[in-house]
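Q&A log
Question type: sequence-to-structure
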Amino acid sequence: MLGKSMTVRKAEERDVPRLMEVFRQARAIMRADGNTRQWAGEYPSRDVVLEDISLGRCYAIEDDAGAVVGTFAFIEGVEPTYARIYDGAWLEDTMPYATIHRLASTLDSRGVAAACFAWAWQHCKNLRVDTHADNHIMQHCIEKAGFTYCGIIFLADGAPRLAYQKI
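Response status: OK
Response body:
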């Protein structure tokens, strides 16, 4: 069960303007919480969102009224930046896994992360996710969903991220 009134569906190109607004609001949430470095500038860009949609890995989360209140990328298969983990280890490193990226919600929505994690768990029993050290809200949501902190990974640009896994 995803949560009281949220549904998850594949995002479509017609959703892009709303998804960009969701990302704008998510950046505002982060900034208000003191997370000033994650998702700098206009990340994720429209091009990133369009690529996720074209690859079938972008999802929209709707409230009970059908309004898009969140989004995430669900990527099955190897995540290159997860090949090496520092100051820890993955709980399990041989089975196929899926990764959750670019999870975002609107300013006034609640339960988006829980809906995302519940949906992802229904689709894969080996999940990985990472977040910025300053993203205390996301760390709380990740841990509340039953993920275990595993160590630090580095993005392609060298930025460190806290890495979690749930199996």
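Response note: Helices lie at 16-32, 46-54, 112-123, 136-144.
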